[in-house]
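note to self — DONT lose this again. spent like an hour looking for the file last time. sequence + predicted structure for the chain T wanted, 206 res
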Amino acid sequence: VYRVDFIARNADKDLLTILRDASNTHKLRREPPQSAEELVRRVEADLPRLIDALWGAGYYGADLRVRIGEATIGLSGSSGSASRIAESFRNRAPVPIVFEAELGKLFTLRRIEVIDARTHAPLDPALVPPRIIRLRPGDPARAADLRAAQVRILDRLRAQSRPHAKIAQAEPTVLHQSGEMDLVLVVDPGPEAGIGPVTVSGSPDR
């Protein structure tokens, strides 16, 4: 039996929820493993998942570690005595597991380019105006916001009778020194579909 906590200084409730949702250790807390070694492996497997979640939230410089009792496990591994310490809680108390994140800076967007895959020039704003893209320099570089922008672009193009529109490439460049991201979206609008032959069948009303 174990209990799990998440600590991230200056994190809001939404970010802590993202971490809990990404953690199998948290999801499976009512299904404790059979041994201390299995528990340590479960915890270690969570570290890359949680780092991915932090990156997705815009914290590309985040650091993460987990404490099992007095033992500390970092991204580089080296659990040391973690299994022995976890075993010492058996039949005595729940094993205390604490994930600790150092968030660092929330990365922001520096430059956003939307390129036409056919011409390699900026996409005609008559096709997709900036109010549809809704990404501006200085906005948080959150993965969910970047995906949502791509969905809005495709929805706009498909509403213009372009059923084969697609995002040919999404190229984010993370600039760790400045805490910023450049984003290039290469958009293939596809051909504009016309209306084919129209036929009417059935008996005329009399």
